Amino acid sequence: MADKGNDPVAIWQTMIGEMEKGFNSFANQAMTSPEFSKVVNQVGGATAGAQKQLGELMEKYLVSMNLPSRAQMVGMAERIQSIEGQLNEIKAMLHQMQRASGNISNDHTSAPRPPRTKRPPAPGGEPK
Amino acid sequence: MNAPTGLDLASIPERIQTEVRRAIQRSIKGVEYFGSSGPALGLTPKDVLHARGTMNLYHYRPMVDEIYRVPILIVMATTNRGYILDLVPGQSFIEFLLKRGYDVYMLDWTAPKPEEKSLRMEDYVLDFIPDCIRRVQQDSGETDVTVIGYCFGGVLSLLYGSIFPDGPMKNLICFTTPIDFREMKLFSNFSDRRYFDVDRLVDSVGNVPPEMILSSFEMLRPASRAASQVQLWENIWNDEYVKAYRMMDRWGTDTLPLAGEYFRAITKDLMWDNKLFNDTMSVGGRPADISKIKVPILHAVAEHDHIVPYDAAKHLITKVGSSDKEEVMLKGGHVSLVAGANAIKRLWPKLDSWLGGRSI
Fold it and tell me: What is the interface size between A and B, counted as CB pairs within 8 Å?
């Protein structure tokens, strides 16, 4: 094969890599300036303000269209989440009771756990 | 044989043939790429032990017949999903730990909902982590727990360990964990208190949107996304390359929003006042001085970490109060330290050799 110094593909790849490094380094230097921070934060602040206003406008629009508002959807999601949480708690309690009664099924959550007796391998030895 | 600097003319036809073949493959695979999804990630069998809002506690099912006594709780960074540590079989840190005989739990995060914008630092440090530790203790039947924190998960683990120095944390492992936020120079400049009005931002948006978090990460290396896409096109004939690219790209862009109050505290206490480094940090009124941490600690840092530069992480080991402490610097970047081919041969075996003897 041609050595890497003359391989056009390798030259292209090296060039891309170098361009990437060079641009990143240049941009990083520019981004450490206070001016950059000022501009970025001015733009970011304006965007955040616009986003808030848009959100409020959408909320009003949904109400006028007789569609559920975000707050109502969030409320429903909260209720579902709370029901899911309670189901999980009940499931965990049932598993605990099942374990306590010694009635072990094939279910993985109630399957016997491996013993906690593992020791690290001796230096230079194979893992146990 | 090639002349050291000359062009081997005999190899040209073969090279042209290879390039033509790759060009054809690129066209075919390029169409396939856009018509298919990436590999399924995070599939190591697990049970959701507990879920509460943004917090999820998983228990991974053991894969061997005998396990170490001390279970592990992995605390994931709040900006990213935990499946970076559980990519695909053979490239999963979780699977590696399970096969080496560890009992693994993970505290992973989902996007905080709008109503969770009021979650504060104390909710994470004084509620979520202790709650998970308690549940790990109950589930495993063990009092001791090893905590592994990745990136900001490491910061949360440090805060937890400094507030609860008497246990039950038995060992602490941090991956790429910053403590001197002044040295995260670009983030520090982005959040310059003269220009960055964090109160206005949080009051406007509630939770900080993931696009903003992602942009701030991508701005650290603004040319890298374009360059990686060029590299993808060049290598699109190579299935392994494409698979690895898709896994990392999916994870990298799957950024989580941050709860507003939590973000406010990070900005003011850590980015502006550098309280963790200055030993003035407190959470919920409780002093969080990391010199109080006395448990064995391992800190793994990456040589080419552009997110948490070494200068931001290097004081962790000197500042903790542990006598059994070690910092290890490995080749790689912020993500390749913990996932991918680099991690498989460097970090994972190192962690296993350090932790095995401390898990009995």
Answer: 150
The 3-state DSSP class for residue B63 equals: coil
Within-domain flag for A120: no
Rounded to an integer, what distance in angstroms lies between the CA atom of residue A13 and that of residue B16?
17
Domain residue ranges in chain B: 46-358
Within 10 angstroms of residue B17's Cβ, the number of other Cβ atoms is 10
Q: What is the pLDDT of residue A97?
A: 80
- The count of C-alpha atoms lying within 13 angstroms of the C-alpha of B314, restricted to the half-sphere facing its C-beta, is 8
CATH of domain B46-358: 3.40.50.1820
pLDDT digits 0-9 by tens, A75-93: 787 678 778 777 877 877 7
Report which of residues B352 and B185 the model is more confident about: B352
Select the more confidently predicted residue: B191 or A118.
Answer: A118
Chain A segment 12-51 residues within 8 A of B by beta carbon are 13, 16-17, 19-20, 23-24, 27-28, 31-34, 36-38, 40-42, 44-45, 48-49, 51
Please give the pLDDT value at position A1: 46
Residues 6+ positions from B105 with CB-CB distance below 8 Å: B49, B57, B58, B59, B60, B71, B72, B73, B74, B132, B136, B139
Question: For residues B276 and B261, what is the distance between their CA atoms, to the nearest angstrom?
Answer: 18
Best mutation target among B54, B184, B221 (most A Cβ atoms within 10 Å) is B221
Query: If contacts are CB pairs under 8 Å, which of residues 70-109 in chain A contact chain B?
Result: 70, 74, 77-78, 81, 84-85, 88, 92, 108-109
Domain count, chain A: 2
Check CB contact under 8 Å for B195 and A9. Answer: no
Residue that finishes a domain, picked among A15, A47, A66 = A66
Contacts of A113 in chain B (CB under 8 A): 62, 67, 103, 140
Owning domain of residue A40: 36-66
- Which residues of chain B does A9 touch, with a Cβ-Cβ cutoff of 8 Å? 19, 234
The partner residues of B6 in beta bridges, in order of sequence, read none
Band (B292; pLDDT cuts 50, 70, 90): very high
**Chain A partners within 8 Å of B187 (Cβ):** none
Q: Is residue A108 part of a domain?
A: no
B205 touches chain A (CB under 8 A): yes
Q: What are the φ/ψ torsions at residue A101 (nearest 5 degrees)? A: -80, -5
0.85 surpassed by complex ipTM:
no
Say yes or no for a CB contact (<8 Å) between A6 and B5: yes
B89-108 tens-digit pLDDT:
888 999 999 999 999 999 99
Token digits of residue A124:
């230079």
- Where is B74: in which H helix or E strand? strand B72-75
- pLDDT computed for residue A70 by the predictor: 67
Distance between B250 CA and the closest CA of chain A, angstroms: 21
